[in-house]
Amino acid sequence: MTATMPRNAGAPGPRTGADVRRLRDLLRSAILRGAYPGGHLPGEPELMAAHGVTRATVREALALLRAEGLVDRRQGVGTHAVGEAVLAPLAEAHGMADPVAGSVFDRRMRPRVLDRSVIPLPEVAADRLGARSGEPCLRLEYVALLGDEPVAVATNYVLFPEAERLRDVPFVSDWYALLAEAGVALGESEFVLGCLPADAGTAGLLGLAVGAPVVTMEQVIRAPGGRPFDLAHIHHRGDRFLLVSRLPRASARG
Fold it and tell me: What is the pLDDT of residue 244?
């Protein structure tokens, strides 16, 4: 049996909140993946025709993207994407795969160190790492920069003996490059992902408005023998840093 499209398929109908949300999501995906040459979005008539929506729907969707800081609209100029996003394979973000050429983890980032000091290990961090509260640890906090733009802020609590190796090694690129240069081997990496509104401090570090959504990541890194040695709390801009996960199906259902 052959499916047939409704007679009015593609014709703009009454505007709905769902239409605006769907168009916003489609355009955001295209913007973040660099689908528009030079960052210049199609005009309103082109978007209306391509998506079968009204002019009001197009304008509301673009207004949402502008409020997110993804586009800039100017009379007589059109709509342009603001900034660029990078795609990071999840295995590389974990530190469990060598970065491919050109990857954001291929020494493209640089840190702005906020704190690099030995402190007593906080109780909550001790629980996550299976260590004693109050024992010495290295707290290394930094803003990750891509070019001149901040994309993430991270606070790491590193146990000794790994902390000893990291104390004086120059930090010039990303976290995993630092671990490699310090001779620290990785065995396992775990992420807990979430999303929170940016507080004033985080917003200031990342160049966001207070309350803007940021992706949160709590990471625990283990040594090859399974011992946890690093706890990190990471906040990154979801509009500039995108995690990509791709896995084959392990087995067919019986």
Answer: 87
